[in-house]
Automatic annotation (TrEMBL), chains A, B:
GO terms for molecular function: DNA binding; DNA-binding transcription factor activity. This is Metalloregulator ArsR/SmtB family transcription factor. Keywords: DNA-binding, Transcription, Transcription regulation. Coiled coil: none annotated. The keyword Transferase does not apply. PROSITE patterns: HTH_ARSR_2. Residues 9-102 form the HTH arsR-type domain. It comes from Geobacillus proteiniphilus. CDD domains: HTH_ARSR (cd00090). The keyword Chloroplast does not apply.
Length: 102, 102
DNA sequence: TTAATATATGAGCATTTGTTCATATATGTG
DNA sequence: CACATATATGAACAAATGCTCATATATTAA
C-alpha cells in the first residue's frame, strides 16, 4: 500500500481514543472505575477501600470528571460518585476478562 | 458494601491490563497498531507513512514487541512487522468506532 | 573485505504523570 | 457565628515517557 492509500484516522479521533486509553492505563484509575462500576461510592469510601489518601483519590476523580467518565451527586457533605460512560466500562471489563483468562 | 465485600482485581491482572492500555494510550503507538492491523509493514514504511523518524518508530516497535503486541519476520535486510494480539486490536477498533460515532 | 542499507539501541533531555503536603471550599451542627 | 466534616485544589517533586542524536548491529552486494 502506498502512503496515500491508507485508511487514516482523524486527528480528533486519535486524540479522543488516546485520552480514553490514558484514563484506563493507570492502575489507580482502573481500580476506581472498576469499583464505581460495581456501586456508587463516596470519596472517602474509595480511599479506604483502595488504601489511598483522600487527596490522591480526589485528584484522580477530578481527572475522570474532566473526561466525563464519572459523575457525582451530593448528599449533605458527601459526594457520591458513579460511572458515566458505559462504553469505557465495557472496554475495561473486556480487557480484564481477557487478562484473567490467559 | 464493606471493604472486604468488594470484588477485587488480582494485582497481576491490574498490572497486565494497565500495560495493555498504556500501549494503546499513546497516539504514535495507536497509529502504528492501526496501520499494522491493515497490513504487514516494514519499519521504514511505517516511518514514512506516519511521518516519524526511523529511530522513533523502532523504539516504539521494541516496546510493542516486549508486550507481544507485534511480531516480525525478516526478508533480507528488511523486517516486516505485523500485529500479534487480535484482542488488543479489537479493543482499539471498538474505541475508534465509539469515538467516530459521537 | 569494504561499503551500503535496514533496523536497533543507548544516552540525554524536555514533558507529562501521580503522588504528597498544605490549604481552600462547601455543607451541616450547635 | 464558630467548629467539625467531606471534598477539592495548588505547589512541589520524583518517576515515567517519548523523542532526538549518535552509534551499533545485521544483512547483502561488490
Amino acid at each position: 500500500m502506498k502512503t496515500e492509500d491508507h485508511s487514516f484516522l482523524d486527528g480528533r479521533v486519535i486524540e479522543e481514543v488516546s485520552r480514553i486509553f490514558k484514563a484506563l492505563a493507570d492502575p489507580t484509575r482502573m481500580k476506581i472505575l472498576y469499583l464505581l462500576s460495581q456501586e456508587e461510592c463516596h470519596v472517602s469510601h474509595i480511599a479506604e477501600v483502595l488504601g489511598m489518601s483522600q487527596s490522591a483519590v480526589s485528584h484522580q476523580l477530578a481527572l475522570l470528571r474532566t473526561l466525563r467518565l464519572v459523575k457525582y451527586r451530593r448528599e449533605g457533605k458527601t459526594l457520591f460518585y458513579s460511572c458515566d460512560d458505559e462504553h469505557v466500562i465495557s472496554l475495561l471489563r473486556q480487557a480484564i476478562d481477557h487478562a484473567q483468562h490467559q
